[in-house]
Amino acid sequence: MRHGIGYRKLNKTGEHRKALFKNMLNSLIKYEQIVTTLPKAKELKPQIDKVITIGKKNILSNKKRLFSKLQDKRSVTKVFEELSKRYSSRKGGYSRVLKAGYRTGDDAPMAVIELVDRNPEAKKVDKPKKVEKKEDEKKSDQKVASK
Question: How would DSSP label each residue in 85-144?
Answer without folding.
Answer: HHTTT--S--EEEEEEEE-TTT--EEEEEEETT--GGGGGSSSPPHHHHHHHHHHHHHHH
